[in-house]
Structure formats: C-alpha cells, structure tokens
Task: structure prediction
Amino acid sequence: MLTLKGTPSEREFLHHVIRESGQNLLECLQCGKCSGGCPITSNEVGGPRRLIAEILSGMKEAALGDPTWWYCVSCGTCATRCPVEINMYKVSTVLCEIAGKEDFAPSEPDIHRFEELFLKSVEEHGRVEELQTAMIFNLRSWKPFRDATKGLQLMLKGAISFKDLLPGKKAKQTEAGRIFEKVRRDKDSGAAI
Result:
C-alpha cells in the first residue's frame, strides 16, 4: 500500500483526480506498460507513466503542464495494457477540466487553439469547414502561409475553388448547435452532463 506524504493540498489534488476520474491511481504499479504502448510517448511527451507519477506525487503544476494529456489520442492502449486497468483517458479528461476551471495556460497552445476552432466550426455549420478552420488556425498561429503551397496545389487540381476560401454561410441552427447550446445551459445550471 502506498503511503501518501506531502502537503494537504498535494494530497487533495491526488484525491480530487481519483474521485472525479473514477480511477484508483494508488493501484498504479509504475510498470511502464502504458507508456511502452502509447503512440505519443517520446522524449518530449513523457507518457501516461510519468503523468501518473506526477499526480501521485501531488505535483499539480507539473501534471497540468504535462503535454501527455494534450497529445492523448484516446486510443485506449494504456488501459488495455494496464494490469490494474487504469483508464488514462478519464484521468486526462479530469486534468483538462481542472485546467479549464483554473484558467491554467495550455502547455500546447496550438492544440488548444485548433480544438476551439474545430468545435466552433461544428457548432456553426453542423460539420467542420476544413479549409476555413485551417486558414483561421494558421492566421491565429501567426503562420498565415504555412499551407499556401498545398492550397495552391489543391486549387490547380480542382480540389478546391476560390469560393471555398470565402467564409461559409452560418447555418440557422444546426442540430449540433442545439447540442452545444444544451451543454452550455446544463453546465451553467450545474446539471450533470
């Protein structure tokens, strides 16, 4: 059994993540099977094992700043390989919620920026307007010509036209838009989503 040491706030962070995710991180063996199979683990992205170690140590700032949960592709490999069946996707979701509530600056601002643009496009159009989303992303990333060569190639092949470059018409109210609105209302009223 793991004996927790550290300040009460460090222990509270760990218990909050356990409570909200439903994953008993105290059972983690630190065997490394999760990180060994994780497609995003690298020198820069430590992977699930390091992230759990940070949470177990009560290192809230390090855990919220860890790029692992930003890069997570929700493939489930970590949970499948884990001998104690810890689902890191659920843990990552809790870290995302904590970071959002505490206005913690994203460790991967480009990923965060793209997610926001992607969801906004789905809300407004009922689907992703790929070209428009990519163009806005490049502008907001201060790299407006990042995909210019590829865009020109697609135009020459007839895959896109000049009208595709214009902002799409905003749908009156898509089904997706109604779902987003309901989630916002439920969140504001404190109802379970």
About this structure: The longest helix spans residues 109-125. The mean pLDDT is 80. The chain has twelve helices and no strands. The two ends are 34 Å apart (CA to CA).
